[in-house]
Design a protein that fits this description.
single chain, Aspartate Aminotransferase, domain 2, 14 helices, 379 residues, alpha/beta, 13 strands, Aspartate Aminotransferase, domain 1
């Protein structure tokens, strides 16, 4: 069976983990946490990058930094993981879902402004599949209405929009290093902070609401409880694993891109025949080969395709039941405007296996399996 995902492993992770253990440096903010943070700061231009225990927690920190209060509205797509909404719901915020673009599956920037009310506090673009949302338009809307922009760039590490790293464009950006992501620490994430004047508050939130970070830098002689916060600091062991991957970041990216391109070239004839749709990468966007998906005609065809691929030893999956259709989505949020594409497109999308180390012959096997399914189907 060609599995859908395998967590990335390059071979040097244990060396760094062992080093951290041998030096008895296993709690957070040791040298590996700092190395990873600097690595991202240098490559994104963010004023500060703070490793967190998950992308979920990075988004929760962003909600606290944006001072979300009960009743504040936050505009986001419904086609996203639950953490995008949960982070704001935990502060009493109200997710306001708007429709997506059918080409990229991203938040439709033309639907945002109509959803803005006097209660709106932030816009949360989700860069699906590591492909950027139309950030110039989103930033312009936010500027004119005085709104925060919090990028959910969980899938967007090393992707860019017009040369700018995803996660570094809005006020705050959130990365994921879950085992399914291009670069992993098992469970983990990072918060990217654009402006220097937000860094101290972010450090306080991350350290249980205390100014302990300043204490360890020798800036104060004792630390105390300053504000709201929680324990968002990851273990140094997790950071050491991630550091091993960052040292091979380009190798991982190139490997994934080869598989992505192999899928695209192999399946392009089916798109030209009108049987499937392939991913769209808009001009000005550079992606990171986080995933490769195809779109079937409808839910019935996708269900049949998943079952067929399994008979050919290929594990393919779908994801994201639109949040506005879920019990919690109905309870805590609302959909603004027409759901023209969100549900329809989510029911068509199918993700193919893609991970670091996927062999060319395995990718070809997947392509042949998809081709075999459609060989017997007519439009």
């Amino acid at each position: 069976m060609i599995c859908f995902n395998r967590p990335p492993y390059v071979g040097n992770e244990l060396e760094y983990i062992t080093d951290a253990v041998n030096r008895r440096e296993i709690c957070g903010d040791g040298q590996y946490t700092k190395k990873c943070s600097r690595w991202f700061e240098e490559r994104t231009g963010a004023a500060k990058v703070l490793l967190t225990t998950s992308c979920t927690h990075a988004t929760e920190m962003a909600a606290l930094l944006a001072d979300i209060h009960p009743g504040d509205e936050v505009i986001m797509p419904s086609y996203t993981f639950v953490s995008t909404a949960n982070a704001f719901v935990l502060q009493g915020g109200v997710p306001v879902f708007v429709d997506i673009r059918p080409d990229t599956m991203n938040l439709d920037e033309t639907k945002i402004e109509a959803a803005v009310t006097e209660k709106t506090k932030a816009i949360v673009p989700v860069h699906y599949a590591g492909v950027a949302c139309e950030m110039d338009t989103i930033l312009d809307i936010a500027r004119r209405h005085g709104l925060y922009v919090i990028e959910d760039a969980a899938q967007g590490v090393l992707s860019a929009y017009k040369g700018r790293a995803l996660g570094s464009i809005g006020d705050y950006g959130c990365y994921s290093f879950h085992e399914t992501k291009n670069y992993s620490m098992g469970e983990g994430g990072a918060l990217l902070i654009r402006e220097e004047d937000s860094v101290l508050q972010a450090e306080i939130i991350r350290e249980k609401g205390t100014n302990r970070s300043q204490f360890y830098r020798g800036q104060i002689d004792k630390y105390t409880w300053m504000d709201r916060g929680s324990s968002y600091l990851p273990s140094e062991i997790n950071a050491a694993y991630l550091w091993g991957q960052l040292n091979a970041a380009e190798t991982i990216l190139e490997d994934r891109m080869r598989s992505w391109n192999r899928y695209y070239e192999g399946l392009l004839p089916l798109q030209e025949q009108g049987k499937i749709e392939l991913p769209v990468i808009p001009e000005g966007c550079s992606h990171n080969a986080h995933m490769f998906y195809i779109k079937a005609a409808d839910l019935e065809e996708r269900t049949a395709l998943i079952a067929f691929l399994r008979t050919r030893e290929v594990q393919a999956v779908f994801h994201y039941i639109p949040l506005h259709t879920a019990p919690a989505g109905k309870r805590f949020g609302r959909f603004h405007g027409e759901d023209r594409y969100t549900t329809r497109e989510s029911e068509r999308l199918l993700r193919l296996p893609l991970y670091y180390g996927l062999l060319p012959e395995e990718a070809d096997q997947v392509v042949r399996a998809v081709q075999a399914f459609y060989a017997g189907r007519t439009l």
